[in-house]
C-alpha cells in the first residue's frame, strides 16, 4: 500500500498550509486565502510531515489553493467565498454547487490504464449527452498551464503516482459547478478509497460505478499503441508498469468497495469498443434512466432554461 496516498498524507497538506498562512500573516501582514478544509479533516487534526514526499504534496496543494484563489472570482455562496470566510462545513464548501448538484446523476468510470474508459465515455456522451470529466485530463490541463502546481502534478504523473486528493476533488467540483448539466461521467476517479469518501462528502455519492475489466497484457499492448500518438509523458513502458501497480494497490479496493455497496457494474473491456458499449448502454439506462436521446434531453433543457428566474 506504500504508493497509495493515505488520508493522513493528504492531511499533512492542511497542517503545513496553515503554518504557512500564519507565517505570512505574522511577517508580511499579508493574508493568504484559507485552504478549504477537506471534509474528512477533523478540526484541530494535525499530522507531522516528514520526508520529501510530504513536502512535495504540501507544495502542490498550496499551489492549487493559491492558483484557485487568484483565478476564481468569488460568487456569493460559491466554494471560493466559503473558503475565504474560514473553517467550512461540507455544506458551506459546496455552497450553491451542492444545491445545483444535489439532483445530479453521477457515474464513476473506473478501469485499468488503457481499458477504454475515455473511449466508452465519448460514446456515452454522443448517445446520452452526459458531461464527461476526466480527472486525468483536468490534471493534464493544469500541467499545460506551466504553473508551479502544473510542474508538481507533472512530476507525480510521470511517476505513475496519484496527485493529492484535495487537488483532484477541487478540480472536479469546480468543473461540475461550472456546468449546467445534471449528468456527469467522472472518468478515472476515484483512484483510492479516501478520494471516494472525499468526493461523496463534498459533492454526492454516485448512482453507478462502471468498472472496465481487462487483463494487463491487453492493457499494455493498447497503451504502447496509444503512446505513438498520445504525446503523454506517462505512456511509456516504465511508467505504465508503475500505473498498473498503483491501479492494483490503490484503485482495486475502490472497485471492491462499490461492489459491496451494490453500485458496481463490471464490464469486460476486451471485446471491440462497440461490443463493450452494448453493456455500457444497459448499465447507464438502468441506473440513470437514460432511455431518451440526446436531442430529447437538449429540447427539455432548452424549455427549463427558458423559464423565468424565481
Ligand atoms: N474495446 C477496445 N478494444 C481495442 N482497443 C480499444 C478498446 N477501447 C479502447 N481502445 C484503444 O485503447 C487505447 C486506450 O483507450 P482509452 O479510451 O484511451 O483508455 P483509458 O481512458 O482507460 O486510458 C486507445 O488507443 C483506444 O483507441
Ligand atoms: O484521480 C486521478 C486521476 C488521475 N491521476 C493521475 O493521472 C494519471 C493518468 O490518469 P488517466 O485517468 O488520465 O489515464 P489512465 O492511467 O487511466 O490511462 C494517473 O496515472 C495519475 O498519475 C490522479 O492522480 N488522480
From TrEMBL:
Sequence positions that bind ATP: 114-119, 226, 271
UniProt signal peptide: none
Cross-referenced Gene3D superfamilies: P-loop containing nucleotide triphosphate hydrolases
Catalytic activity: UMP + ATP = UDP + ADP; CMP + ATP = CDP + ADP; dCMP + ATP = dCDP + ADP
Residue sites binding a ribonucleoside 5'-phosphate per the record: 140, 161-163, 188-191, 232, 243
Protein keywords: ATP-binding, Cytoplasm, Kinase, Nucleotide-binding, Nucleus, Pyrimidine biosynthesis, Transferase
Cofactors that this protein relies on: Mg(2+)
Keyword Nucleotide-binding: yes
Compartment(s) of residence: Cytoplasm; Nucleus
Chain positions covered by the region annotation Disordered: 20-92
Domain of life: Eukaryota
Residue ranges of the region described as LID: 225-235
Biased segments, Low complexity type: 57-74
Biased composition (Basic and acidic residues): 20-30
Coiled-coil ranges per UniProt: none
Keyword match Cytoplasm: yes
Free-text domain note: Consists of three domains, a large central CORE domain and two small peripheral domains, NMPbind and LID, which undergo movements during catalysis. The LID domain closes over the site of phosphoryl transfer upon ATP binding. Assembling and dissambling the active center during each catalytic cycle provides an effective means to prevent ATP hydrolysis.
HAMAP family given in the database record: Adenylate_kinase_Adk, Adenylate_kinase_UMP_CMP_kin
Family: Belongs to the adenylate kinase family. UMP-CMP kinase subfamily.
Protein name: UMP-CMP kinase
